[in-house]
Amino acid sequence: MAWSILESWGVQLLQFLTFLVIARYVDATMLGIVAMALLVGQWFQMIILSGISASLVSKGTADADLDDTAFWISAAAGALLLIATFSLADLVERTAAHQGLGMVLRWLSVANFLGALNVVPQAWLTRALLMRPLATRSTISTLVGGIVGIALAVAGYGVMALVAQNLAVAVIGTIILWAACPMRPRLRFSREKARDVLFYGRHVGVTGAANFFNANADIMVIGLALGGAATGIYTVGKRALLAANLMLARALSRVALPVFSQLKGDPPRLAKAFLKIVSATSSITTPAFVGLAIVSDEFIFLLFGPRWAAAADVMRYLSLFGALQAIGIYNQSLMLAMGKPQWQTWLAGIYALVNIVTFFFAVEYGMAAVAAAFTARAYILYPLSVWPVVVLLPLGWRDYWKALRPSVVASLVMAVFLWGFRFALAGQAPIPMLLSTVIAGAAVYMIVLGLVGRTIVIDMFHFARAGGKRVSSTS
Q1: Which of 112, 187, 354, 419 has the maximal Cβ count within 10 Å?
Q2: Where are the transmembrane segments (predicted)?
Q3: Which pTM does this prediction carry?
Q4: For the chain, which residues make up each domain, given as ranges?
């Protein structure tokens, strides 16, 4: 668990810092073109490769014939994608009307092919709970890729800096992964094992397809309707939130799923644990994301520079979505733990469909409208995500709201206070404004939370104290 969390946080931090530096040296159009080209790899990973990986990890025990068969299936899929990308790249460029997109697609298709070759050794190490090599591989490859990308961006290579960064991550990651994994594929292919892989993978793939469109429909719609420059600006506004959510989602979901699975035989105890973890998470993430929305102007200006100022509105709306997503992770983990993955598939499909339809109407009013529509959809449909919780656990809607109420109320009071506070300080330089807003907001939030949610504060203190003792006793 420690190595998994280290990998998640370390990689996301390195990626964000690299993105932060490169964004100062490339223009919005270049950034948007690469963002659109990367969608191909994300689609391939979420719909095809994730299903193959899940079929191996879920096996629980080593199966050489299954591993060999899965390797050749993933390698064949990667080769087909490579050939298709090279063949269709120019057509995609003409259709999307983004000059340079074809060249970027061809180069990144090499990284996608390497990703296909890495599925089985990565699943093999995961199944064996050997997380340290995976963390080492991700951290080193991301660091090397960041150095390559930054060096080329500073030297003026533009879009090729972003391409080289992704290729370096793929190549270095592949070398380290295969050096760490003792498994070597053999020239064996079992039809029976292939049926097992494809049968299991189709369920994961359907969910992956829905999640892909749910997560990326905004970028696709903006890229087609508003062009590469708008896509680049939108990507900057979304990148900080994406890094925070990936760090948070990955760490929390890896903890929540096994805990809920262990407690599913005792529904009352599971319900109590679920409400406590939701309440504790909300008490930390809700004020953080609300605060991020409030300081988005200063955040974008100081980290990315004044030419990305238009990204602040995008970040403001998406930060409010992040506050909801942080607690929604537990609803998904509960459905998986209770053996209801098909419920999650249906929810992801509904969200994706509503997103695509909503974005096509909202894009007419600009990037900020798309971000606002994304967040509005999330809040309006969130009860659908809570419904499985009240069905599967012995708790009601009022119990769920009661767990969230202290942090929500304290965050709203903080937001109202900061609106007046910042109005009084209008005209201040970005750094003093940012620091004073953070300090004042944190103070107000803690005071109000202590008044309306004293139990949460006490629980968090005990959790921190117990964790400190555990670290001391094992060090």
Answers
A1: 112
A2: 6-26, 33-57, 69-92, 104-124, 144-177, 219-237, 273-294, 314-331, 343-363, 369-395, 407-425, 431-452
A3: 0.70
A4: 1-183, 220-464
